[in-house]
Amino acid sequence: MYVPARGPGGPTTPGTLLEVTGLRVVADGALSGPEVVLDGVDLRVAPGECIGVVGESGSGKSLAVRAVVGLLPDGTRTDGGSVRLRDQEILDLPPAARQARRGRGVALLMQNPFTMLHPQLTCGSQIADGLRPGAPGGPAVSGRRVRRAAERAEVARRLAEVGLAPETADRYPHELSGGMRQRVAVAAALAGDPDLLIADEPTTALDAANQRAVLGLLRRLQAGRGMGLVLITHDLRVAFSACDRVYVLYAGAVLEQGSPAELESDPRHPYTAGLLAAEPSVHERLPRLPAIAGSVPAPGRRPDGCPFADRCPHAAPVCATPGVLLRPLPHVPAPAAEGHQRLSACVRLAEIADRPGALKGGAPLPAAGPAKAAPADGAPAPVSGDPAVRTAAAPVPALLLEGVYRTFRSGAVRQAAARGVSLTVPQGRVTALVGESGSGKTTLARIAVGLETFDEGRVEVGGVALAPGRRPGHGERVRLAGQAQIVFQDPYSSLPPLRTVEATMREALAAAGQIRGASRRERAEWTRDRIGELLTQTGLPAGCATRRPAALSGGERQRVAVARALAVRPRLLVCDEVVSALDVSVQAQLLNLLTDLQRAEGFAVLFITHDLGVARQIADEVAVMYRGELVEQGAAADVLDRPRHAWTRRMLAALPPAAVGRPGPAIGPLGPGEQPLQ
Amino acid sequence: MTPPRSPGPGPANRPAPQRPWHVRLGAALPLRYVLRRLAGTAGLLAVLSAAVFALLRVAPGDPARTLLGTRSATPQALAAVRADHHLDDPVAEQYGRWLADALHGRLGTSIRTGQDVTAVLGDRLALSAQLVLLGFAVAVALGLPLGVLAGLRARRPADRAVQSLAVVTLSTPVFAGGLVLIYVFSLMLGWLPAYGPGSGGGGDRLLHLVLPAATLGLSVTAVLVKLTRAAVVRELAREHVTFALARGIPTRRVLIRYVLRGTVVPVSTGIGLVLAYLLAGTVMVEQVFALPGLGQLLVGSVTFKDVPVVQAEALLIAALVCLANLTTDLVHPLADPRLRTAAATAPADRDKGQA
Ligand SMILES: Nc1ncnc2c1ncn2[C@@H]1O[C@H](COP(=O)(O)OP(=O)(O)O)[C@@H](O)[C@H]1O
Ligand code: SF4
Ligand SMILES: [Mg+2]
């Protein structure tokens, strides 16, 4: 079968719950006029089916689903296409009729459990608001007290459905943890018993344990209710582990469609292959992660023809011909189940699929052991080989923690964030600190750079000893700043929003007292040169210097944060979850950048992450933290291949197969000698 | 579609009956919090009273001369005033005595008229209070609905119209606005009296206060309109509003329960501020409409350097503003559970989003 015709009015397949055909969304920019954000998106969901929509942020996933439920944000509107819900076109319906359909026909669960619930209403009342009239507990039952009691009973039943205690009904959202809030939101979204639930990044804001739990919950509810489920995510592992069918969305267009198994083992679009390859494996450290260069183009700056062309390593002139459509794969016989057809939008598929190593089955890149990873192209080799020898030669470690304790008190609650932690980060090496959220990793990182006090123990940062129980004074802070710098998880909040990149960096240089030069002019010149050098080093265009954070993408902001930290040439760089807010392709770029910089400059890194694959990719040594204690420590390969502590074993066992079984580099679109067409 | 199959309320999952209202009120407004706010207000008043007391001392010239006013400053008279007001005692002692007197309602005698200040204030307080309350009613009755309307219709004609009107009222000086109202409603239409407090009972007083109250209220309505509009626009853009719509809650209900609910805290803060503006506004309005209220008294006393009266008035206004402030502080935790100080049950696990 060929792709469904674009535009409304195409025949619907019987038994389809949701059919989106050629959906177009435009944004009316204030200056630039209308810009096409979604350019013909096709999606189909059968009753009881779970489909996934994956793609980097900015691909248009959220806008697509908000267009489906008819709640596009201000400034955007649908501009053609068709959305049929149970064989009825809903784009033409008047607003009131659409509102009546929400909640029963389709409900949308949004990403952020911290903003999705009303802070001033109890959880129970927010669930009750969505109950259908006529349903038990719905507003149709007569008698106020009877109705109230019935409603409370129904809310308790709904809470039990998502695994929460009935008392939760009287709680306000801020009294609950993120995972619990997300469960309340799920119960609220299901209150009207929708045929179709659309979940937009439901697990992105949660930690790993809660991610798995909420995902499992959604799947269970979907199966139990026979409901359709659309799962939006930027995380391939999530989509592959939960969905029956996956759509790969990029820059407003669907590029590939297939089952998780097919997409994973046999991607049929360079973009999918690139995403898969960029995912770090927990079993193997690559000299470089095959990252997709560049970033998702903004709506106004997409290339004609294939939207992926400016990042695609296989791009050729033919790719620029407009009208790149999702089409069935050549050479692949149409399967029996029509819904499981493989589709790909790559026009050169026939040519590149035959090239060995292009999309599948290529020879893996040479694997490298963690300690002697091959130097990246052009980067100098690590300072020395054997860690023991180097430690003897440089007896002052970059960071030394000995028996560090830190307990937080809030009211009567005492929370031990660090319980006798002893950790040494040797000079010039990368140590990963892994552990679930709340295990005390961030506290330790903040202690190491003097942002947090500790109760007892010994902390030395490159020979600068910190005193327990108080914050470092001004002089100490200046010395500390020259030794250790930190980069935080959230690139959106860690840079001052009103300052240009240049001003931010100048400030960092001044704070460590490192600006050189005799005269004012000399100093200004020196600063400018140094900033230019840093921007080049971190792969940022020179034009960045005069921009403010809002004008940068997430990946660029994180690069700026790295550049700022490295401005003062610290001996220790502390990275606190620096890649966990980034897309996998940008994450790979940043990990490569950090590896290159570390090898070139030879500083030590304390890299905090909850992602074991990331730890494997970046670290020489791994330390595992669990409930405030360091439970395991050793060479990365030892800890991750032969874990001894139960928690490490459990984490490794819980990894979805996508991160484990896949031969990492086999499907890399960027071979060693291949450069993307820019 | 298939009905949902969710587990029934088992024994472990029976809903507890909702707690009675006084328990919930106690949880929302713990006694400790109320007491702390009261103590804070008292402290603030103490500081303000010290400032008011200092008025006399920092006024240029000899305090004794100031207190003598227009009477001839013979050495004997000066000495008498000094003794009377204990001007030779240490300043702290003077302040203590003055404060104790003020707390007992003894605010001294007016320099200008020789009357007891408490009595002078008492007459005028009633009139000014009526004026402020009516003006407040006008501002709230106009400002809130118009602000909500503008917010809901943001960037559309209705919004533009409301905003333009708001700018006009905001940029019209009170005396000009008052004169326009007098011209239209008293002179042209003859519906309402133009000035004076009226001589008859309540009805007559009310008639006489309509124009002054409208003038006073309109002068601050724009502030409320803008505040309310901004709050509504902000609330409309919240993700929880989209989520409420996305799960099928009727639009009206979403507007009232989700959008307006969220505006209570910012708008009530604004209302508290507006009350303070209204008190200050009486000065001008009472001049324009020839109302013998506190505002007029203040103007007279300041021009006449009638320090005891000015002090008493300043103290009264400070107390009222503090009271308005206290009320907002007590309303906030009722409106927004996040502002409650009672240590909530600590979340069991922390998440990435917060860390
Ligand atoms: N309200 C809006 N007005 C204009 N453009 C928007 C708006 N919201 C999103 N966009 C644009 O639409 C594109 C897709 O955004 P979004 O759907 O949020 O992507 P995703 O959910 O895949 O991260 C982005 O390039 C973004 O700039
Ligand atoms: S080969 Fe051409 S059509 Fe295929 S993904 Fe690359 S740029 Fe797009
Ligand atoms: Mg999104």
TrEMBL record, chain A:
The lineage of its organism: Bacteria, Bacillati, Actinomycetota, Actinomycetes, Kitasatosporales. Its main location: membrane. Residues 18-276, 399-652 form the ABC transporter domain. This is Peptide/nickel transport system ATP-binding protein. NCBIfam families: oligo_HPY, PRK11308.1. The keyword Nucleus does not apply. Belongs to the ABC transporter superfamily. PANTHER family: DIPEPTIDE TRANSPORT ATP-BINDING PROTEIN DPPD (PTHR43297:SF2), OLIGOPEPTIDE TRANSPORT ATP-BINDING PROTEIN APPD (PTHR43297). It is found in: Cell membrane. Keywords: ATP-binding, Cell membrane, Membrane, Nucleotide-binding, Transport. Residues 361-383 are annotated as: Disordered. The keyword Cell membrane applies.
TrEMBL record, chain B:
Keywords: Cell membrane, Membrane, Transmembrane, Transmembrane helix, Transport. It is a multi-pass membrane protein. Its main location: membrane. Pfam families: BPD_transp_1, BPD_transp_1_N. The chain crosses the membrane at residues 38-59, 131-152, 164-186, 206-225, 258-280. GO terms for cellular component: plasma membrane. Residues 125-328 form the ABC transmembrane type-1 domain. It is found in: Cell membrane. GO terms for molecular function: dipeptide transmembrane transporter activity. Belongs to the binding-protein-dependent transport system permease family. This is Peptide/nickel transport system permease protein.
